[in-house]
Design brief:
Number of helices: 7
Shape: elongated
CATH architecture of one domain: 2-Layer Sandwich
CATH topology of one domain: Ribosomal Protein L30, Chain: A
CATH superfamily of one domain: Ribosomal protein L7/L12, C-terminal domain/Adaptor protein ClpS
Largest sheet: 4 strands, antiparallel
Distance between the termini: 70 Å
Strand order of the largest sheet: 1-3-2-4
């Protein structure tokens, strides 16, 4: 470190203390802007971190129900009944199964696109296009467990997703 060599360790310690003080003042300003006391703000931040960690953990546990997420060599459409971004006019479209609908991407659109790529095997451009077009059906899976797992994976990064069960009558 050049500052330490040139000025000595007391200046480096002062520099780090100044950085810590500025970070502390920034968080106090953020709490004040929200109308919270320091204790309320710190507990709200702790609850927010806990909630994000729980969502992330739920998404990781749910991903175990989707076999193509554990087997990286296979594409999602290799499994029977899985259709990526189903459209009624597409060949191979069937009415059975559960649709996973991306309702809103939320704030973290890049992370949602990354999870969407992982779920569907689409390119980054196609995934970002789907994220921008929300609400859109992104996946059709044959059973409710896989649909709930895909929904949890999308919700683990802050997206809003839902599962719909279409009619079982084939056209």
């Amino acid at each position: 470190m050049e500052i330490g060599r040139h000025f000595g360790w007391p200046y480096v310690a002062g520099y780090y203390l100044l950085v810590l003080l500025s970070l502390f003042l920034l968080s106090v300003w953020r709490y004040h802007r929200r109308g919270q006391t320091l204790r309320e703000g710190m507990s709200a931040d702790k609850a927010r971190r806990r909630h994000r960690r729980e969502l992330w953990q739920r998404g990781r546990e749910a991903a175990a129900a989707l076999p193509w997420l554990t087997d990286k060599q296979r594409h999602p459409t290799d499994w029977p009944g899985v259709v990526i971004t189903p459209a009624p006019e597409a060949p191979g479209y069937f009415r059975g199964g559960y649709d996973v609908v991306l309702d809103a991407a939320g704030i973290t659109k890049i992370q949602v696109a990354g999870k969407l790529r992982r779920l569907t095997g689409l390119s980054l451009a196609s995934a970002m296009h789907l994220v921008e077009e929300a609400p859109v059906v992104v996946l059709r899976v044959p059973d409710a467990v896989m649909a709930a797992a895909a929904r949890a994976v999308l919700e683990s990064v802050g997206a809003t997703a839902s599962v719909t069960a279409p009619e079982d009558s084939a056209e």
